[in-house]
Amino acid sequence: MDIGAHLLIVDDDERIRQLLQKFLMRNGFMASGARDAAHARKLLDGLSFDLIVLDVMMPGEDGLSLCRDIRAESTTPILLLTAKGESEDRIEGLEAGADDYLAKPFEPKELLLRINAILRRMPAPAEESTVPQVLHLGPIRYDIERGEMFEGQEPVRLTATEAALMRIFSHQPGEAITRADLVSLLNRDKVGGEPVQERAVDVQITRLRRKIEVNPKQPRYLQTVRGAGYMLAPD
User: Fold this and answer.
1) Fewer CB within 10 Å: N-end or C-end of the chain?
2) Is the entire prediction scored with pTM above 0.85?
């Protein structure tokens, strides 16, 4: 299963953030969301992203400050979103290290075109520079880069669908993913066989819980979020 570039959407407006996440996921990307700069910093400490879509106007630390700090230690491309469209604001954003700038309101298709244009300009990362990233689920370790799971030193065997689910969840830790989006992602690159249905997703979640939970009937790590779907909540 080939999941595209991993994007981080930083916006304090929950409705806009979730709409952008769903839109980008349906256009082939993985998309994590952060509600503010502090949340974004926490995600950036544990995961690497291919591009950051960053709202400028946020309560607390604003997007320009976060952009400067990210750029001081990372080359991850940044696309700024703001309600301001004046030229001096665009210049300030670019001086902060942003790769592009899009004023609100905007058409989602334009955002998609700009993201793809930025990613096309980025050089492919060197193979040797890839640092394995690991999620901890109690005694379980999940290597994101390799898609491998271990309990202690013993490998935990995952079926193809379980592996696909873990890859999807591991790119959005702490974020609920709806059944419909899980179905869409699982089916997108599926070759042959019957398409995955929402009911089948529930069955696969139950099986996956048996492998990662101490008590599958009271899941700690692969949680059901009422009205929102499922969420992976690593340590």
Assistant:
1) C
2) no
